[in-house]
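Lay summary. Proteins are chains of building blocks that fold into shapes, and those shapes determine what they do. In this project we predict the shape from the chain. Here is one chain we studied, written as its sequence of building blocks.
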Amino acid sequence: SLYVSEYFSQSAQKLSFYSWYGNAKLFHFHVPEDTVLLRWLLQASRGKGPECTSMEITVHFRHGAPPVINPLGTRFPANATVRPSYNISITLSSAVQNTTFVNVTTPAAGDWFIAAHLPEAAGRIEVKGFSTPCPYMFQADMFVLRLTDMPVLEPGVPMPHTVVSPAKPLHVKVFVPKHAAGMRFQLSSCVTSEQRACTVRVLLGSITLPQSFQRSLTCTGSINCSLALESPPWEKWLQIMVESLGTANASVSVEMLASFTVCRPGSTSSFLNFISLNQSQAGARPGAAAGSSAPAAGEAPRNASGRRSSCLQSQPVVREDLDVVSVRYRLLNGPSVPVTSLSPTLLLLNLNTGMDSGGSLVVSLLLNKTSVSLANATVAACVSAASPVLSLNATQNCSTAFSQGYPLSVSASSAEAMLIVLYPQTDDWFLSLQLLCPKGQGECASAEGKVTVFAYLTPCFNDCGPYGQCSLLRRHGYLYAGCSCKAGWGGWSCTDDTKAQSVGTQNLATLLLTLSNLMFLPAIAVAVYRFYLVEASVYTYTMFFSTFYHACDQPGVAVMCIMDYDTLQYCDFLGSVVSIWVTILCMARLKKILKYVLFVLGTLLIAMSLQLDRRGVWNMMGPCLFALLIMVTAWVHHGAKRRHCYPSSWKRWVFYLLPGITLAFIAISVYAFMETNENYYYTHSIWHVLVACSVAFLLPPRDKHKKPWAWSQKLTCRYQICQNDREELYAVT
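And here is the predicted shape, written in a compact code that computers can read:
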């Protein structure tokens, strides 16, 4: 046999502390067919700075779809079925780098996903630029060993083969046809090269994570041994590995045989229904419509008689793509599906495009109670991938040859049922329904139930509810969705209210963050009183937009947005930085023309820097430091010119400047080092109050030659007798 090794790599990603699924870094690989060995090379590294400490990285693996993880231990939606992901931990302690290998023999072909993240986030709000977080990097590489000429086992044809040694197992594959109800594998004529009884182990199927349903069979001696499989995966290659358990130098000769039991589906006249549906939508002629519906009506007796001889009844389903990771399934024969006890009714839900595994598959069943004549009858249902469940019973295990399905049931006492499959794997999904009676199938042989089926694929179930936001995430060309929760809510779909804020707490948070901006009113009054009208206008602008930005920024139900959120945020940040800029320049006591030029020029530069990086610390610290430099230079100039300290009054220092500077430093400390997600609504309110009060203290006094409210004298609303000096000059002789 000829083996070919292939190598696949993706760029490293910077890891984040976990608070929601968007913090997990996703890697997407495609394993080719006929792969016999898969090896993951996982490389984790951290920075070398003193802020870097020991850290544990969690890595999750899954085949077919992104792994469903729950590092925070929150609750999932009520009807969601969750199976834990396969994960390992990588520890970065004293070593800067850690390399880990993960081997998977006979892996399933198709999409494989890896998700990596750091432990739970601390919840502290860090200002960008004040602290340097430690970078933790993670990279996943994939090595595969593929067999280029894997022998094909033809159904019904015995195939002799030789296992050369225990170190070199034999790999063959067989194709499973559509509508295969069962498969039987048989191994016979097992002898060694030394003409002794042999012992071999047969592994059927491929390994999938987090759960592997690979079947094992051990054969000893020359007697025939066989293994029967129910509902093998349709239209897929099934790998079979035979390995010798004997001595190292002895080869083993075996003969293999695979046979299938094919299920004959009942006729549903889906093509005729599809033609009539298209003609009705296009407005066909009455004669044509009548002609097309006549054969369907004529086939009704044949369908009824064929239902008894077929092992399943397939209902035609149309896949309707609505948007990204958004699909609706529509039944051509109507939403109601007839269900009997003779054979299961089968619906195909196509999710094999490769872009459907990043959402949630929702299947809802509603039983028409008047359609079932038996009061104690139950409609059992199974949702499974790759192959349908063709024999439903009361135990409801919903298992196929290599997968475990999801059970559902509706009855007269419980007529509704719903199933949510989070991140369904890329494959053909099947919904099987059958009528069951407690005293046996003979009791309800002639009964028939009507079940209304609703099936759709959505990015986020229930759009993450009122306390969550559905975000579409992207890794290269692959799209998937996740819920970002707020107001203390958690869980996959933001349905866990363990730490949720009450409505009263939400209202209190909104009132504190908005009404605390009213503390700018004293600063505005002081500025107007001292004839600083430009500064008062800036403070009014800041107060207005900060109030309505925080009213729109709330995570709960107490929200009011007067305009776009991004616009409110930008105006709030701009007003805050410009308020600091104009206050410090006002304290510098510059000439008016120079002060107003700096006002305008600084505002334009601040607006540009905020557009580049809105949350950067230097957007605030840069203008502050530059304004302080101008103020200190102006004060030194005034002091040197007057030959004494400036400001000269000790009362000005004790009662105004020192309290204002103290309030400003406390405000900066609260803003930079004390804010967390839990205390944000009152620590940020304290920031509003302290900054507004410091502005009122720091504004310089008015000019001595101006009276209070001198601006009102500029508005001349009366008649004045004006003297024309030029005419008087001309009158002098």
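What the prediction tells us: Residues 548 and 562 are 7 Å apart (CA to CA).
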